[in-house]
Write a structure and sequence with these properties.
The structure is a homotetramer of 404-residue chains. Chain A is an alpha+beta fold. Chain A folds into three domains: 7-115, Orthogonal Bundle (Butyryl-Coa Dehydrogenase, subunit A, domain 1), CATH 1.10.540.10; 133-245, Butyryl-CoA Dehydrogenase, subunit A, domain 2 (Beta Barrel), CATH 2.40.110.10; 252-400, Up-down Bundle (Butyryl-CoA Dehydrogenase, subunit A, domain 3). Chain A has helices spanning 7-24, 28-40, 49-60, 78-89, 94-97, 104-114, 117-128, 251-287, 299-328, 330-333, 335-360, 362-365, 371-381, 388-400, and strands spanning 133-137, 154-158, 161-172, 179-187, 199-205, 211-217, 229-240, 289-290, 293-294. A four-stranded antiparallel beta sheet of chain A has the order 2-3-7-6, with no helix packed on it. A three-stranded mixed beta sheet of chain A has the order 1-4-5. At the A-D interface, helix 8, helix 9, helix 11 and helix 14 of A face helix 8, helix 9, helix 11 and helix 14 of D.
Chain lengths: 404, 404, 404, 404
């Protein structure tokens, strides 16, 4: 047992932190200003120049596609990549600079692991280059999507094609004009007795006839442009049979494989957010004076700072342990730990950020600081990829299963 | 001791509820759609037609200026008006229909209680008619505004005028083009040994030279157009000496008098929101099915529904008691109770709404339901008019003061 | 709606508080010292002299059997009696001084409402005189007793007698040598299709052959002598058929009727405990100095004091409202409110007491202050008469039932 | 970074667990029964036979003095010993079987590190043999002992002796007749400008004239016999000057050095308790049936089981990390982490145990299960060695110190 990062990881942490310090943090507001400007000019759905400017710089420094699994052409284990996610996570838009942003990483991983050479040539290659973006169409507005058997979207084989009909939402990233490809979850065999063999995943080009973006969902008022969370109707959308991923009825299997690493990435990023929030909180409290002394000397804040530090430390360790287990025993054995971090990291971050908001007064809830956005994002994460309740039920099932 | 509302109140509750049922609830989304349409057309700061259409109807039914204090031309005590606030609070934009919306009610009350006949003629009369709107400029971005001695805005007497220099934000309602008048808090006598005699309040027309709206603050990501929370610079703004309210150095006194009723209104409205959230939660849970049964039958939700009901009931009773004390012993004696409800009602509502959001999945955090807005609003209320910590400290001081 | 107590109630509050001040508080420790002395001498199960001395004094002042329902010979409504419970509750052993202690009040109420004249002559009369005590044998160690259909105890008719076999525990008060009569819940008709008609309640003299006290249960280490919470075996215990209460199969009905008032009494008493704890906390914090200032000036305590005050105020109001509803619409209509206070009052009190314990350091967890006992008692109340979960489920069922 | 225990540790875990399984768990109740029997016979302060029987067995297996630091004759680092504490902690009285129980381990460590050869011969040797026991007299009833400058106990040099006057309580273990030696904290130089040079620690034999055990404190209602937490008066107690530890004015320094390892031991033991509580909870929930299904299938419990598992995992990792830091960078650098685990482990365990209590109904709060004792013990730990608030303030100070 050893709690030190390896020299390799420490070197990468230092390099990435330096890049963030030099290039990202000083430009943090430029992203929002560009988005605001675009919004004011009537079209918020335009990629920002700042991200595009920084991408070649990151790539030149070797800080590119860091997420890529070691067994599929990458150089880092989950345990090695995880602490880098934390650093990137400190600025909401930073991961894309390194081509490490969700949902692209998850989608690329699906294509890496399960894609045919043709699928990889057509879609994976440009994704790895950061030339296009992608979306994952799973959640549906009409049903409790946490139960995969509820999926209503139909993927029907008609000769050499599949015909897709469905209604999806929370298709994150689909607002970006560069988003060219969707991975769509639907049912090919709704009557299959095995409830986990009913679903399939198929590749659908964003410009396929019948695809219609209905509206951009707002996360607590944020449109998250130019990324965006879209509601999308799929009406008689036809794609070649070769667009099926892995094979009919294997959608649930892909979903399971896709989720593990993504959860670690998400969790480490929100731990980065929590660290950032704690830092902002401390700085603010030292700067503001009320009732005769710096607010940092008001005792109630000591409780919150200490609790923040305690919770962040714990969450990081358990997330790293889950990453370690992914690397050593695989995500099936690690499923309890992965479920645990999925529940705890956003909940923890939400609390730390909430305290930081309180420390910032009115500044905390508006665009003056990144806190309100971070808060709303963590609130969403408690629903995305299954609500907390479903994960807690799974953990409980594993725990109860230890006893007769 | 009696926990029944009087027949007079019951009749008003029924009448108001019927109006809401007939006119407001069916049009709830129209408000948001109009705002969205205006926003898309490049100017979100346009009053909605729906509110303007409903105002004469409400007035015709006698549901107008219900907030008006009994000792200043009104017909309802605080205890009688409070339950009406709860009903109006169920739809965020409803109070304006009845000319009962913040911050206008608080500003009108200030003019009623402390305004000169000239000030009343010029500003109160059109406000009571619902023809113009108003804003309250107190909070400043540069200091901890919860400590009134921190106020930086200067109001300097120069002959027959006051010259005002300051920087304010969270000036709610100042985004509305009909907002014509600001009540501005600043220091006339910053060196006065009595720290509560340094501040004054002065009337500043929105179109006075030197007034500049810097930007609209977003609550989480909501712009709250066409109402808006504005950041406003005041640079060498000149107003006639007759615009001073009550007299130099009496700003703190006015602020104290203004806050009591406003807190009861806010609290009752958020109790209305909590009731609405609980209702939405129950309905949703009954409708959605997961893992073989309606989500309403998953035990974890019984805990949350029950806790929601328990907390709402308690918060309502204490708020009504505070209203009763305002009526019977006055807001100085009731200051502990007023501080208590200021802390508890938004905190309670935030929790109930959070559970409701969780019950709604992705729908809960976006514009599909009013929940995300309600949540963000309650989060703000924990900062507005002083953060929770300041009120809790006041309550503690009163409590500790009971013992030697 | 009116939040003031009536003059009648205020007069009784004053009288009772004066009695407590004069007679009970100064002797508070005597009770524990006597119990300790008896314990040291090898028999803790001896009634204390202090209670016996005070009983005639209380009776002489008319402070006797205050719980007695107005419709059964008493003078106070639930709403009038409730605030008196709060005052008595401040000292754990005080209620018995006024013949107002559980479980006797509940048992007397059962005999008043459902007893035959013979049953009343034999058992109710001496209970009303405070000459004997009683116990209620419902909970069983082998099953989840919150589900009444789980009851294992059998009450079988054999000619002119009932034969009782069962195993009970948490028979509070059965440690007292004056405890002469048990009300025993068991099944007379275990196969009755109506699951609420299977149970009956029968009177069993404590000295009936076959009754065996197995052991005294300790509440977090407290034996609660001389009151005691006993585990009791009933083996072939025979009682005359005339000892049946109300009739075969009516045990559930009696239980339902018995619980309402008892819950209000319990809740008001624990509100009294919470008030006491808050008072002790404030006094302690003002007295102790750490790190250069009174602990009362450490900000973290302001949060806790304020939260304590807020929660106590709310809990009291809702409990009083439940009492009011019991008086005006009856305990069936008030069942949601009664369930609510059953959950909230002990939970609230536990938290306030826990903070008070923390304020007292090592003194808080030992016999130096009444806090540890109060804490453990409230912890038990969250299980007694059904665990919180069962009550919350009932509240949720009522709430969900409001919607289709 | 590696989350696996070393083979050495795994082997020790297995050996210790096997010993617990074979010898301790089957006799768990015997300890309590012996104590109860002794109590009933009028003297609870008699060492149990079960512990004495098991000690030679443990020693024979090499499971003896496992706590002994590697740099002082032991074989295990903090990181290696910590997981063994967890196993021993599952049964409250188990650590003594291995001569690993508090406060003896801490006292032995003080003697190992700071004792003179004479002090070690006289007191350390028999302690290491498990022949005598010891107590640590620091906390005082009259002051807030968390602030070391509050210590009232005086240690005055008079020629070749020190004369000690003071009043101590929470002297754990001093109830045991084998407890022969006290380490007493007091002030030798109360006027020293350096507030951390005022205190000294001196060895006081339990039978020194002037030592008087006033009473046994009850933890909630538990007397914890035969261990005991005593209140002790020291009146003109004289000890040779050679009994001073390390030198005059170095008491604070010793206290600091003593606390680090002890905190890790305490924390790991309570993590063991939390694991035990979770195990008991799961087993109970599977066994009991209510409202038509095993309670384990009631959803509310899934939330609690999952939260328990999440919190235990996190707490263990952070505690192990603190142990690792103690080993690698020392307890000064690790002081934040040590403060963190001191706060989090008992708080976490208290919550898990509380849920387990709730799952056990009336059984949970009485002597039927070890839960009530565990709960009360964790409650005490939140006060022992400084209340949570003091540790949180220290963590906050370190955190705030990172920023200008």
């Amino acid at each position: 047992m050893d709690f030190e990062f390896s020299p390799k990881v420490k070197a990468l942490q230092a390099k990435l932190a330096a890049f963030m310090e030099t290039h990202v943090h000083p430009s943090e507001n430029r992203y929002w200003e560009e988005a605001e400007e675009n919004r004011a000019q009537g079209n918020a759905w335009v990629p920002t120049r700042i991200v595009e400017e920084l991408k070649p710089k990151a790539r030149a420094e070797g800080l590119w596609n860091l997420w890529r699994p070691k067994d599929h052409g990458g150089t880092l284990t989950n345990l090695e990549y995880a602490p880098l996610c934390e650093i990137m996570g400190r600025v909401t838009w930073a991961p894309e600079v390194f081509n490490c942003s969700a949902p692209d990483t998850g989608n690329m991983e699906v294509l890496l692991r399960y894609g045919t050479p043709e699928q990889q040539d057509r879609w994976l290659a440009p994704l790895l280059e950061g030339k296009i973006r992608s979306a994952f169409l799973m959640t549906e507005p009409g049903v409790a999507s946490s139960d995969a058997t509820n999926v209503q979207c139909r993927i029907e084989r008609r000769g050499v094609e599949y015909v897709i009909n469905g209604h999806k939402w929370w298709s994150s990233g689909a607002g970006d004009p560069r988003c060219r490809i969707y991975i769509v979850m639907g049912k090919t065999d709704p009557d299959n007795a095995n409830r986990h063999k009913q679903q399939s995943m198929v590749l659908v080009p964003a410009d396929a006839p019948g695809v219609k973006i209905m509206r951009a969902l707002r996360v607590f008022g944020f449109d998250d442009a130019p990324h965006g969370h879209m509601e999308i109707a799929l009406k008689d959308v036809r794609v070649p049979a070769a667009n099926m991923l892995l094979g009919d009825g294997r959608g649930f299997e892909i979903a399971q494989g896709r989720l593990g690493p993504g959860r670690i990435h998400h969790c480490m990023r929100v731990i980065g957010q929590a660290e950032r929030a704690l830092e902002l909180m401390c700085k603010r409290l030292k700067k503001r004076v009320a009732f005769g002394k710096p607010v940092a000397e008001h005792g109630v804040w000591h409780e919150r700072i200490a609790e923040s530090r305690i919770r962040i430390e714990q969450a990081r360790l358990l997330t790293l342990k889950a990453a370690h287990m992914m690397d050593t025993v695989g995500n099936k054995v690690a499923k309890a730990e992965i479920a645990m971090i999925k529940v705890l990291a956003p909940t923890m971050a939400q609390q730390v950020i909430d305290w930081a908001i309180q420390a910032h007064g009115g500044g905390g809830v508006c665009q003056e600081f990144p806190l309100a956005w971070m808060y709303s994002w963590n609130r969403c994460l408690r629903l995305a990829d299954g609500p907390d309740e479903v994960h807690r039920a799974q953990i409980a099932k594993i725990e109860l299963g230890k006893y007769l």
